[in-house]
From TrEMBL:
Protein family per UniProt: Belongs to the LOR family.
PANTHER family: PROTEIN LURP-ONE-RELATED 14, PTHR31087
UniProt feature coiled coil, ranges: none
Leader sequence segment: none
Organism, scientific name: Eruca vesicaria subsp. sativa (Garden rocket)
UniProt superkingdom: Eukaryota
InterPro entries per the UniProt record, alphabetical: LOR, LOR_sf, Tubby-like_C
Name of the protein in its database record: Protein LURP-one-related 14-like
Length: 208
């Protein structure tokens, strides 16, 4: 693990496996995420490698409270399920393996750091550290900004992934719900975890 502040996760650092070891690669990954609204109630994300091969796909509700989004592999098997919890100023999500709702299958919890901020910021608590009301230390932290729908993910002070919009941002594309993300995932970092986090941060930022 990097010991100095403001470093990046590198080759040789221990794997960060949150969803599964199968999503950890020993080399940096550059992914493309395409997002579109399918109809008035649903949106769809596709995760592609540089060759255009489908790696993951996410479907879910584009509107409303208590939203649910499901991540599947290219064959259609469910990897994880993201559920927004209740109505509050600080949005909270619980992520379970597969389709489960059971506590023993909880992977991690994501909660907005602050409801009143010009900068999107979320804290991530792994299953063994998921009591966000009592815990003062998160396992991961992501922060970004409303102006360009981008953010960075940190483990302590080490950068493990970065996300940004790949084209010039326009309110037209924003309102239509169509835009692409460039996702840079550092070596040995679980990219399914990073993509799930992207979807939840995007939900906070675009308010769809």
């Amino acid at each position: 693990m990097p010991k100095n502040k403001k470093t990046e996760w590198q080759v040789g650092d221990p794997p960060i496996s949150v969803v599964s070891d199968q999503f950890c690669n020993p080399y940096p990954m550059e992914l493309m995420v395409k997002r579109k609204v399918k109809n008035l109630s649903k949106d769809h994300y596709e995760v592609l490698d540089p060759s255009g091969n489908l790696l993951l796909q996410i479907d879910g509700q584009a509107w409303g409270f208590n939203r649910k989004r499901v991540m599947r592999d290219p064959a259609g098997f469910i990897v994880l399920t993201m559920r927004q919890k209740g109505i509050s100023l600080k949005r909270k999500w619980e992520v379970h393996g597969g389709e489960s709702k059971e506590r023993e299958d909880l992977l991690f919890t994501v909660q907005q750091s602050s409801a009143m901020s010009l900068k999107t910021s979320v804290d991530v608590f792994l299953a063994e550290n998921n009591n966000v009301k009592k815990s003062s230390t998160c396992d991961f932290h992501a922060s970004g900004g409303y102006s360009n729908i981008s953010f960075k993910v940190f483990k302590s002070d080490a950068l493990i992934a970065g996300v940004g919009v790949t084209h010039k941002f326009t309110w037209g594309s924003f309102c239509k719900g169509k835009y692409n993300f460039r996702v840079s995932v550092n070596p040995e970092v679980d990219y399914a975890f990073i993509i799930a986090l992207l979807v939840m941060v995007d939900d906070i930022e675009n308010l769809f």
